[in-house]
Structures are given as C-alpha cells and as structure tokens.
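Below is just one:
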Amino acid sequence: MLDQIIEILKGTSWFFLNPLFYFILLFIGIHAVTRVKRERSDFYVRVHDVMDDFVRGILPGLVIGLVFSILSVFAGLFLPLGIIAVMSLFYIILGLTLRKNVLNPVFAGAFTYISAAYLPPIETGVGFVDAWLVDLQGAPLGMIALLVAMFLVMEGILLISVGSDNTSPILLRGKRGKGIGAHVVSRIWLVPMFILVPGTAVASTSWFPLLQIGESSFSVALVPFAIGFHHAVSQSLPGPIVKAFGFRTLALGIILWMGAIGLVYFDLQGYGIAVIGLAVVGRSALMLYYRKLEVEQAPYFSALNEGIRILGIIPSSPAAKMKVSIGERIIRVNGQRMDRVEDFYKALQSNAAFCKLDVLDYNGEVRFVQRSLYEDEHHELGLLFAQPEKAKRKRAIG
C-alpha cells in the first residue's frame, strides 16, 4: 500500500515536469491579456480581469479531470509514456497557432493516432527520444481513440455547465457593414488527468482494471490536457447557443466513447481510426454549423425600434446591483424615451444623484428599477451597449 501511495505521488510530480502545463498557463495568460485589450478598445473599460480567465479555466478543469481520472483509471485506460510525450508535443505545436479551437484533445489525439499508426520505425540516437518512438510503434491505438472520445464528453459537459459564464462583449460589423454587438465565448480549460502508464507500480487484481488491457502492473502519471473553445455569438444570448453546442458535443462524445470501448473489448483497436475520424469531422462540422448560423440569422444586439438592448454589464457596477440582465431592453431612463445609446447618456446626466430605469424583460413585461448614485461609482452605471460607430471588426479573432 505504501509503495502504491509513493508511486502516485511520483506520478503527480510528472505533471509539473511536463512543459505542456506551463505552455497552457502561458496560453491562458496571452488570451486573457488580448481579451482585456480588446474590451478596452471597444468600451474603454475592462469587463473581466485577467485572473477571471485563470479561475474559470482551471477550477472547472480540475473538477472534471478528477472525476474522469477515477473513471479512466478504474476502467483501465492506459498510455505508454512515449504516447503522452508525443501528444504533449502536438498540443504545443497546435497551440502555436494561437487558435483556441485547435488547442483541443480531438486534434492533438488525432495527430498522435496517425503518428502511432503510420509512422515508420525511426532511430535518432537520442536515448529518451528513441524510447518514445518505440512506445509510439507499439501504441495501443484503441486507447488513444478512447481518450479522444472521453475528452469530447468532457468538453460537452463543460460547455453545458460553465461554457456561457462571463462571456466577453465585442463590437463587430455585420454582413451589411452595420455595427452590431456579440458575445465571445472563449475558454481554455486546463484538465489534469491521472493516466495509467505500463510499469511496476499498481498491481492488477480481479476488479482492477475493468477492461482487459494485457498488462499486469502500472504506474500512475498526472498529465496536463487542455480543452480550447472559441465562438462569437451574435444571433441570440450566448447561453442557449453554447448549451446547444455542448449537448451535441456530449452526444457525439458518448456515441464515440461507446464505440471505442467496443473496439478495445473486442480487440479491434486497428479500427480506432474510425473513431478518430468521426471525432475530428464531427467537432469541425459543429463549429462550421454554428458559424453558418451566425451569418444567416439576424443579429440580436443591434439597433431597435424601441429601447436599447444591454450588451454587457461590468461586474460590481451599479447596474450589476440593480439586477438588470444582458439582453434586456431599456426603454426609458429618468422618464426619457430611449431610441439611441446617446439618449441613455444624456438622460443619466439629467440627474446625477438618482437613476430610474424602465426595463423590458425577456417576457415582454416592463419593470422599474431605481437606485441612488454616488460619486465613486461608474458614471455610466456599468452598462455596455452595441454602438455602431465604434464597431471595427468584421469578425471575432481568436
């Protein structure tokens, strides 16, 4: 028992020795700084601070990584050390594109699978590299396919549960050149997972592992993975779109997961390329489908016949304390009718100590919210709107 505990602690230390861990943190930081600069360019204010990307990228990843680590370890999912190293290398290469949608285990896993299945034997003369290449030649292809399908399930769960939290407002130009508002749903989740590595640490018993994997003992390694996602939503509120994307991703992942388990169970691991191919095609098709919807559907955050629609709310601002929501419409401020964003600012200036809003909610009902204003508070209540004259981009970058 003590030897097993020591081995697990050693496996945990591998997490901090893997360069991919630091690369993911760097990528999150670059993404966060870029987002803040864009928000300041559009609205002259930062909506969410840099640490928000780290907190929302790391904490959910830790939770889901722990849950699926338990499932994968007790199901007997294993990968040789060389496969982990090669997959980490592909992650870094994909990350250098700075495209969050390609920093994803579906694509890193696909390149790893293709390398393991089709790369001819190579010798470099470098000991540890040659050892990795030997692992690559004898890679358990079904296990790679199983891991990719499992990460699709995790991505779906993350999108459904926390994907639409703290989205970032942005100003864009629509297909007719008019300025519109949108929300950028952009996240990099750091997902640490315990993976079994063929070795001499954790002995098999009658109940462990559940899948027949042909090895009698294992080491345990904590491996960093990343799930990147990026999508700009302009046709509606971000929540419904992200959840719909998440449910479809989850369904795809479950189907492929069941297929991968079948391949491993019936020793048909060579057919894992079908699982990998469907994962790549399926996820790419989902991205293209939702991008097409954004082009075809009318923008949600655009000029209205009555009132102005709330595009964003700065956290801890007066507007956040007044319980108004993104997507609701403000039709009057201090009794003055709202037709343009400029009307809002003029109405606020008419009474610097007090503000009363007539808000049209999602159900078409008007409610009244009011609040005293203080000198140290945001002079615009912390509300953000789509301002056509400030829109600079034709599409969201990242």
Summary: Residues 201-213 have pLDDT under 50 and may be disordered.
